[in-house]
Amino acid sequence: MKIGIISRNKKLYSTRRLIEAAEKSGHEVRVIDALHCDIDIASSAPAIRYKGDTLEYFDAIIPRIGASISFYGTSVVRQFEMMGTYSINESVAISRSRDKLRSLQLLSRKGIGLPRTQFAHSSDNIKKLIETVGGAPVVIKLLEGTQGIGVVLGETAKAAESIIEAFRGLNANILVQQYVKEAGGADIRCLVVGDKVVAAMKRQAQEGEFRSNLHRGGSAQIVKLTKQERETAVKAANIMGLNLCGVDLLRSSNGPVVMEVNSSPGLEGIETATDKDVAGMVIDFIEKNAKPHKNRTQGKG
Ligand SMILES: Nc1ncnc2c1ncn2[C@@H]1O[C@H](COP(=O)(O)OP(=O)(O)OP(=O)(O)O)[C@@H](O)[C@H]1O
Ligand SMILES: [Mg+2]
Ligand SMILES: [Mg+2]
């Protein structure tokens, strides 16, 4: 098979591992930088020009679209879909997952456990907003943040109000969320491929920090999931329409709640913590599922 990895950098751990796994299974693999793709809009023959040449046909692509290039990156994935290439994650699903509010709305419609969350653009009653999610402490998040940046803990009602006012002054889209204290500064990353959690790790925030992101100094260890956690992760991935994703759960006193679903999950932390060949499982999934024009939306959404 001819597999394309849509990535800005060949040297990144995840990209390197996917190349390695694809080659090990005898596939031809090429790394494509989305920002160097020119999209050729032609109704009969959609094409992509890459660094001056027309790009050859790929049987499958693995999009790894960084948050900073969501718009152009997903447009390139959509173009591949229109050309008939199978994408492990569809462009519409990636776009959906990039917006925390939209993701939470979709998940809540289907009864997935979520932290109590309020979204408001210019609420007239910030106090009410905080009370609705259970009162302080509350978590305030920028809708398009990543790596824990833009996630703030409002420890008291007063602090929360000031933070919300400050974000609002910057015209930022935010959500206010119940702080799941009983999670103890830990979250669970479930790596989903298809309809299975293939690896899971628990990330623990460092002392004095509530955000467990590895980028914020959190540490990872292997964890055994409950059946309910496993089912929640797979269902969330399915609702989002993602075949490859990281579903982040918090262990709340009411069972697992989904915090977010990442469509370009990093492989380094999870492979290191679990010693599993996640990249190999991604390639296996592609071997079983890649067929021309198989994506559900094929650029329609
Ligand atoms: N409601 C909450 N209750 C308790 N802890 C939370 C809550 N929301 C977020 N956290 C903590 O803060 C961290 C960062 O939050 P979140 O994952 O929403 O942000 P992010 O910036 O999108 O991160 P990512 O890089 O994973 O996309 C979480 O991993 C978790 O440890
Ligand atoms: Mg995120
Ligand atoms: Mg997160």
From TrEMBL:
Cofactor or coenzyme needed: Mg(2+); Mn(2+)
Question: Where does the source fall among the domains of life?
Answer: Bacteria
Cite the binding residues for ATP: K141, Q178, Y179, D187, R211, S212, N213
Question: Its GO CC terms?
Answer: ribosome
Keyword tRNA processing tagged: no
GO molecular function per UniProt:
ligase activity
Which residues does the annotation say bind Mn(2+) 1? Answer: D248, E260
EC category name: ligase
Keywords, in A-Z order: ATP-binding, Ligase, Magnesium, Manganese, Metal-binding, Nucleotide-binding, Protein biosynthesis, Ribonucleoprotein, Ribosomal protein
What residues does the ATP-grasp domain cover? 104-287
Q: Name one Pfam family in it.
A: Rimk_N
Family under the similarity heading:
Belongs to the RimK family.
State the protein's name. Answer: Probable alpha-L-glutamate ligase
What gene is it encoded by?
rimK_1
